[in-house]
Amino acid sequence: MDKKHVIDLLPDYLDQVLDTVQKQKVEAHLKECPTCAAELEQLRTLLDAFANEETAIPSNRVEANFLELLEQEKRELAKVVPLNSKQPSIKSGWGNFLKIAASIAMLVGSFLLGQYQQERESHVEIAALQNEGLELRQTAMLSLMESKSASRRIQGVNYIDEFGDLDESIVKALTDRMLHDENTNVRMASAEALEKFTASEIVKNAFIKALKVEKDPGIQITIIQTLVRIQEKKAVMPLKELMQQDETQPFVKEQIESLLPSII
Question: Which whole number is the average pLDDT over 41-56?
Fold first, then answer.
């Protein structure tokens, strides 16, 4: 453990479910490994869910200053009296006014250009942060699903809502939880999470395989209803076999009997 990263143990470390020896080794490793120490802080921040920053609203002071400058110059212009004429010089007055307007237009243009460049840079930074955040959420999800705590594994499964398209590693982790987790609630949470991604052949095959190994009636019904809903023809034979098994609960058999005709 001294030479390898301990990222997989961090959720259990935060949950304080490691034994004394493991805890001491993790803490010793964290003192020597900046990477794992940083992962610990990021995971703690993610799990604490303190991360909703308010969007900054640009100030209106610049525009107000421009308008104030314009009004001031207009007032000064009204006071100007030509030395060689009793009437104000219209040509001269409009010339000064146009100069002022042109100057302000240049200032406004510069401001808008700067604002555009700032927004463009912000979009690039946001995209980078979103990508970084996605990787962090994936790491957190996978780590939580390997936790010794069933509640943490369920929490990891439920992070599926944070993703649009599933990464292959996440699909594999979810299907493994559904097929092999020792806790019924974790298997049920995994099955319900995977319902949203039945377009994937990997997910379809995992549901069919689950028909052969799952013994909990509640999870069996969830799987049956999902396969019927997506009209998965490859599930017909496993469904018939499940209906013929003596240990299958009567209400599960009734569910199969009522739904099976819709996909045959």
Answer: 58
